[in-house]
Specification:
alpha/beta, 5-stranded mixed beta sheet, 8 strands, globular
């Protein structure tokens, strides 16, 4: 299962950061995911995601597709005071659809959607009509209707672009038959088609192995490795490999001791993987001891996950990590 990952490592395309976690770890899926998505301290609840803060502080004026999540739900990492980014599982479904419209008739909802987004013919420059409704202001001091019109315009333009790219782009590598590979194959098509996106977000579930871990973990790591190998081969064939950085994360690791069901329970420290032409290959961080454990039987973390985020922000995205994360964290020599 690990042979595709080993091949990427041997090719100089992969780095591993060991023992990644945060102080006072939380073992709740929901809360720990929230901590990783917002880059907050474990004793503080933050409403906005670290990528949303990046979009707000560093990508002003970018199109709605500055962040793209492949899936049916926007990740909390994208949340921000001025929401941007789009989510879809299938480009063909990323449009305004009236499922109740009679077969063979025009899509009434899409028609309304596009009429709302059309430029106001009475205003100069073909800009969106500014209609003062007296509603509560939204982002950029827009009225309620202005904000809705702006949002639908962004959605229309990004929908049209995504569909155009999806229909003309084809993978340049053979992908295995699993959900992660399908998502990464779609990302590769968006990259090949020139979608103006800074961050793509995909997920691979099933790692909560409380029972029967050995066989499940073997299968999942096989899916993970083969999907990443295909994605990297695709990017190389496109000539885009050196333009892409891939970073993995999970809300927590696993306990060291096996439970009574042949699995392991929620833990603390875990590795993070980085792939790409800009990665300095190698193993970073302190290898966590399997004997000198925390009082709860967990691995002791040695690298704060926000140091990995700060590294990607500073060294790859070329922005101030303090503006995004709220304070500075040590940067790793991995990029």
């Amino acid at each position: 299962a690990l042979s595709p990952l080993k091949a990427l490592y041997d090719q100089g395309s992969m780095a591993v950061v060991q023992g990644v976690g945060y102080p006072n770890p939380n073992r709740s899926h929901f809360r720990s995911t929230e901590i990783w998505q917002t880059a907050s301290d474990s004793n503080r609840n933050a409403p906005y995601g670290w990528l949303g803060q990046y979009f707000d502080h560093c990508c002003q004026g970018a199109p709605a597709t500055v962040g793209v999540s492949i899936g049916g739900q926007t990740p909390q990492a994208f949340y921000s005071p001025h929401p941007t980014g789009v989510s879809f599982a299938n480009p063909e479904q990323y449009r305004w659809i009236d499922h109740n419209a009679p077969k063979g008739t025009a899509d009434a909802a899409e028609s309304i959607f596009r009429q709302m987004s059309a430029p106001d013919e009475t205003s100069s420059g073909g800009s969106i009509g500014a209609i003062n409704t007296g509603g509560a202001p939204h982002a950029g001091n827009l009225s309620s209707l202005d904000f809705l019109e702006r949002t639908t315009l962004d959605a229309q333009l990004s929908s049209d672009k995504v569909l155009e790219i999806a229909r003309k782009s084809r993978p340049m590598a053979s992908y295995p038959n699993n959900k992660l590979a399908e998502s990464l194959g779609l990302v590769s098509r968006m990259i090949a088609g020139g979608l103006p996106t800074r961050v793509y977000y995909v997920s691979h579930g099933g790692y909560d192995t409380h029972q029967g871990q050995e066989r499940t973990h073997e299968r999942l790591m096989g899916e993970f490795g083969s999907a990443l190998a295909a994605f990297c081969a695709d990017l190389k064939a496109q000539g885009n490999f050196n333009r892409v950085m891939i970073m993995t994360f999970s809300e927590f690791g696993r306990r060291v001791a096996q439970n009574a069901s042949g699995g392991t329970d929620h833990g603390a420290a875990a590795p993070m993987f980085l792939f790409g032409g800009g990665v300095k290959p190698g193993v970073y961080g302190t290898y966590p001891s399997l004997t000198q454990l925390s009082e709860g039987g967990d691995l002791k973390f040695s690298t704060d996950f926000r140091s990995v985020y700060a590294t990607v922000l500073e060294r790859w995205l070329k922005v101030s990590s303090a503006d995004v994360l709220g304070r500075r964290f040590p940067v790793l020599p991995v990029v």
